[in-house]
Each structure stands twice: as C-alpha cells, then as structure tokens.
Amino acid sequence: MATITVKRPKLSFVEKLYLPAIFKGLKITAGHAIRALKGSTPDKTMQYPEQKWDHELPEHYRGAPALVTDEHGRERCVSCQLCEFICPPRAITIIPGEIPANDQWAKVEKAPREFKIDMIRCIYCGMCEEVCPEQAIFLRKDYAITGTTRAEMVHDKTRLYEIGGVREGLVNKWNELK
Amino acid sequence: MDWFFTLSTAVKVVLSIVTLLTIVALASYAERRVSAIIQDRVGPNRVGVPLTLFGAKKDWAFFGLLQPLADGLKFILKEDFVPAHVKKFYFWLAPALTMIPALLTFAVIPFGSTMVVGEHTVPMVIANLNVGPLFILAISSLSVYGIVLAGWSSNSKYPFLGGVRSSSQMISYEISLGLSLVPVLMVFGELNLSKIVDYQNHNGWLLLPAWGEGLSVERWVLMIPMLISFLIFTISVFAETNRMPFDLPECETELVAGYHTEYSSMKFALFFMGEYAAMVVGSGIIVTLYLGGWSLPFGLLQNDEGSIWKSLAHVGCFLTKVVAWIIFFMWVRWTLPRFRYDQLMRLGWVWLFEIALANVFLTAVIIMIFRK
Q: Please, what sign has the CA dihedral across residues A100, A103, A109, A115?
C-alpha cells in the first residue's frame, strides 16, 4: 500500500496542558544561554575583518570575474562578446578593437578595446567563464569588492588584467601552424 | 495646585519618558544579544566609541552597547517613503497611535515610594489615579487602533491580513486580560495602584505572602487563584503586546512583516518602539500587581517615611524587576514557536476566558469562607 496511516499520538492530560513542554523548552534555551555566558560555548563565529577564511577558499570559488594574459603578456580575449551576451544581469560591456595588420599576431584579428564589468550588477554566476571560447575570463577568489562611488565599482580593462594575472597553457590562436 | 507640585510632576514626566525610551532602546539591543546567546551566536558587539578617529590605538567597543544609537541614527537619516497607494491620513496617524498609549499607561504605574524633599512629599507616580487598572485597560486597548489602521491604510494584502489578525487577537485576549484582573482586585479591595503596592509592601507580595498579614492562612489559600490569575494575565500580556508565541500580526514567515510592511524609516521605528514600550509597561503592570511593585522582599526597607536614598533604592528595585521581566519576555520569544491561528483563538476563547471566569468565583468563595 502506498498510503500509510499515521496514528496521532494520544496525549495525556499533562501533555495537553502545554505548560510542561514550555518549561522544558525554556530550560533548554536557558542552558544554552548560561553556557554562552560562562564562555564554554564552542567559538564558531569568525570575527570577520580580523579573521578571514581566504586560505581555505575552495578551487571552484566564484569571486570577481577577471581577464587573464598568457605568459608572454598577450591578451587572451578576442572580444567575441559571448560573455557580454550571456551575462544575466548585463554587467559586461565590451567595445571590440582590431589588431593592426603589421602586428605579429595579426591573424588573431580582434582584441578588446574596452572591457568593463560593473561589479554592482555582477552576480558572480560564472556564466562568462563557462561561455568563453578562449579561456580568457575567469572567476577569481576576490570577494570583498567595495567602492565609495558607482564609477569606482566598474572594473575597466587594466583593473581586470590586474586582478586576473597570468595564466599559462596552450591556446590555439597563437599556434603559427594553425 | 502649588508650584512645587507642578514642577515635581514635570520632572517626573520627563524623567520617566526618558527612562522608558532608554529601556526601549536598550531592549532592542538586549533582544539581539539574548537571542544570540540562546542560539550560540555572538550578536551585535561592534558599535562603540570610535576612539581611533581621535588618534587612539583601539576602538572602545563596550559590548556593542551603542548599537541602539547607531540604529536610531539610521532610522532618522533613512528616506521616509510613503507608497502612492496608501490612505495618507491614517497611514501617518497609525504609528503615533501605537506609540502613545504605551507611553500614556506608564503614568499610573507607581515606580517608587514617596520621596521626602525638605518639607514636601513627592509620590513616585505621575498620576495617582483611583482607577489605575481600569485606566490601563482602557488606554492600552487603544493601541489596537494603531495596528488596525496601519494594516488597513497600507492598502495592500500583507498589512491587511496582519491588521485583521491583530484586531481579532487583541480583542479576544483583552477579555481574559480584564477578567483575570478581577480576582486580584477582589483580594485588594482597591483600585489605586499606589495603595495596592503599599499594601504589598507591608503585607507580602501577592505571589510571595511571607511577611506582615501575608502569613495568614487566607492569603496562602488565595495563592491558588492568584497563581491562575497571574498565569492568565501574563499570557494575555504576551498576546496584547504581540510577543512571540502570539506574534501573528507580524509573523515574518507568513506576512513579510505584517501590519508595518509598507512602513519605513522613523514611522517603522515608532511601531518598533511602541511594541517594546508596551512590553515595558506590561512588565510594569505585572510587577505592580503580583510582585510587589517597588517594594523589596521580606519587608526590607519597609518604612514609607524615608530619605531620598531609600526612595531611589525602591525605584531601583522596581526597575530591576521590570528588566528581569523584559528578559523573560525575550527568553520566551526565542524558545517557543508561533501558535497556529485556530490554536490561538481556541486558547483565548475556550481556555483562558473560561478559566478566568471560574477563577473569579473560586476567589469569591475563598474570600467568603475566610471573611465570614
């Protein structure tokens, strides 16, 4: 049978009065309060600005998104604007730029002229990292992004590369044979 | 009406309102700290004197005791937003209607023994009314209008539900509140709160008849109906102040914030302060009627004629009892879950009302047997 009939427990008169249960509850909470006042409660709370958890952040932590360069200082981003399109809160604004023909990597064709992420809008979802075909944008472990003005909260290209740093690894677009 | 009476009354009014508001402010801090220690957390412990601004090495946090100041500043500086869909007049009226009755009822509660200043005597009560408990019941029942008007004038569904709930809840529990008082007044044979406290000072508290006339068999037998009356009165005060097991008008989990959902900044703060002021006054009434008001237990410092210091000691005693009760209110809030609505109504109408009624007769019979 799929149906299970649960019998309501029969309460005695004392139990129906509520009051004994209330006093039992009061005793439990008072016990916690007295333990806390004596200072014997295990200290689980972190005093945030003094104590931080940064070194224990997991590898997959989703902090501020940032752009990365390769070991030779080349921009990975080709300004395809996929991240701009997928961004749910529309925090990313990209103005694409052209790589001049006399450049060594002219075959890459495009690089971002401007790349802005509005950190007031960003929801740290990681869609940009997931959608990026060039592995140019990553979510870093920075989480305390603050500013005193709205303009300060918009990360421009230099700031994004500063946060992102260098990431090594083969990227096909710089392979001269391909 | 001589100048001394006017002056002393003015001083008493100002001092008691300042004290009341201070207790309210500290209660909002204490609520968070009490809930924190009950739930093994820390609570607000940061806001203090920012000594680093003046070049000192460390801030003086002082357990975060200045938190209410920061909260108050925040409330004043916040935008006072009035939604377009509200009924403006009543929307503005409602916060005042919740705050003022709570402050008014404090006027009849005696908070200390008569103070002798030179050749004058100053009774430590603002208004020495001969109908104290009736005045309290009459005024405190006005605060339901504040909540109902807030719920109705907000013109949206959550405040409306909160207002409806609170009107039915407060009206239901006012009956048991008033009825549970009747046996107490029968025992005292008196409606003047100052005289009630004075009687308890000399003849034992209602719930601790351990000195003076209180040692008679009659008073100890009367303990049974008095305990019942005390229990019902306390439960009804919880319901009247919308405190935890009965906080259905606010009820964060169901109604967002209940009747004050649409309120912001200082208007919201008035509701908040009104709730705590009602709590302070409720504790004051319980203390005055059942626990001897300002008097110390076992006839200590009993004489009425005394120095300023003795009178101040009595004020301190009253405040201690009230603060203890407020902490009890908080303790209950962070222990018990909320009643379901039908349980609330059943408790009020089927149990408390009937028991309070029977209690009146029980007291009458006991008094009749002993005072034949």
A: negative
